[in-house]
């Protein structure tokens, strides 16, 4: 199955870095978060990627065009301009980069990829979220429901830690490190989609995939939630980036230590 990744947004809440590079190229432990996302899919043998770029797309294109160079040790003979690759650790990926415009919303970006997706089911996610989701179980669930779209539902951790205290005496008993938020489930990305969903995206409007298209599919009873209780984190802020960086340096749980 092809993997489609949204990677064209402005990333305004991370403007400290996205003023210079697109959000999917922000590094987590020395690798773009986009690379980490692709490694998640590689674990399940999904290695054919369609990346929907837009804002500062040059940086993503340059990274993959020169990926072999980025990943290898080289010897350069300046006299002959000859480059010899000493070692190579490149992944077995096929990467299609589609420039879908800087101002396009997610639905419009996806529709522009229609001829590359072809008439086959595909996987879809955002270029800023990491998870240890079991994609094999999700795919089984998707088929069992005869769904048009299966969306991963997650419960993000709260932003701040909390504590327990006796309501009568106000005595604090212990602290809780970033408990779940208000208990609501949210869209965590990591979709499985049937090709017919593209028929629900209007070609004459700039629309978000999460608005009219998904809402319409939900009204048809063909949108299902795959509930994921494991690790999930979206890189929305500099705080998120720093937390992911710390996790990656110790134990990249989204890869189950397969790097």
Please write out the topology.
Layout: E1 2-7, H1 15-18, E2 27-28, E3 31-32, H2 33-43, E4 48-53, H3 57-65, H4 67-71, E5 73-77, E6 82-87, E7 94-99, H5 106-112, H6 114-117, E8 122-126, E9 129-131, H7 135-145, E10 149-154, E11 162-165, E12 172-176, E13 186-187, E14 191-193, H8 212-219, E15 223-227, E16 232-234, H9 238-250
Parallel strand pairs: 1-4, 1-8, 4-7, 10-15
Antiparallel strand pairs: 2-3, 5-6, 8-14, 9-16, 10-13, 10-14, 11-12
Report on the structure:
By secondary structure, this protein is an alpha/beta fold. The chain has one domain (2-255): Spore Coat Polysaccharide Biosynthesis Protein SpsA, Chain A (Alpha-Beta Complex), CATH 3.90.550. It contains nine helices and 16 strands. It has helices at residues 15-18, 33-43, 57-65, 67-71, 106-112, 114-117, 135-145, 212-219, 238-250, and strands spanning 2-7, 27-28, 31-32, 48-53, 73-77, 82-87, 94-99, 122-126, 129-131, 149-154, 162-165, 172-176, 186-187, 191-193, 223-227, 232-234. Strands 1, 4, 7, 8, 10, 13, 14 and 15 form an eight-stranded mixed sheet that branches. A two-stranded antiparallel sheet has the order 2-3. It has a two-stranded antiparallel ribbon with strand order 5-6. The radius of gyration is 20 Å and the shape is globular. The mean pLDDT is 88.
DSSP, total strands? 16
Q: How would the global form be characterised?
A: globular
CATH class: Alpha Beta
Q: What is the CATH topology classification name?
A: Spore Coat Polysaccharide Biosynthesis Protein SpsA, Chain A
* CATH homologous superfamily assignment: Spore Coat Polysaccharide Biosynthesis Protein SpsA, Chain A
> Which spans have pLDDT < 50 for at least 5 consecutive residues?
none
Largest sheet: 8 strands, mixed
- CATH architectural designation: Alpha-Beta Complex
What proportion of the residues is helical, as a percent range? 25-40%
Helix- and strand-based class? alpha/beta
How much of the sequence is in beta strands? Answer: 25-35%
Our count of helices gives 9
